[in-house]
Write a structure and sequence with these properties.
Blueprint lengths: L8 E2 L5 E2 L6 H10 L5 H10 L1 H40 L1 H26 L5
Antiparallel strand pairs: 1-2
């Protein structure tokens, strides 16, 4: 249906002035004549659009950050509790083991530091 635009009313700037009202019935008739898409077609078009793909990327990144943060917080508390229990239950043993390791390692570490800084003859 081709319309001739020569009979359109124009305002002072040459913009067409709409004079014909569209009734509900005419609008429904036009909708009935247009091809209807199935819901699967609509979903397919949506999922293929760049805008939806970008939004899904942002959602996935946000969910990954949130999951990581929750895991870190849960593990940090559990690890801290395990360390505290271990040290509390074995505080004398832990102290002795640490002290023994320091006694063994400290002389060599001090000698290496002096050599590295050219403080020995």
């Amino acid at each position: 249906m081709k319309m001739e635009h020569t009979d359109l009313a124009l305002d002072t700037e040459g913009i067409p002035i709409l004079t014909d009202l569209v009734t509900e019935g005419a609008r429904d008739d036009a909708a009935d004549q247009s091809p209807q898409q199935t819901s699967a077609e609509i979903v397919s078009e949506l999922l293929q659009s760049e805008r939806v793909k970008n939004q899904l990327d942002e959602i996935a990144a946000s969910l990954a950050r949130d999951a990581r943060l929750q895991i870190e917080q849960t593990l940090a508390a559990a690890i801290d509790e395990a360390i505290n229990k271990t040290l509390d239950n074995n505080s004398v043993s832990a102290y002795e083991n640490i002290r023994r390791q320091l006694d063994l390692a400290l002389p060599e570490l001090l000698q290496q530091t002096l050599r590295d800084n050219d403080l020995t003859s």
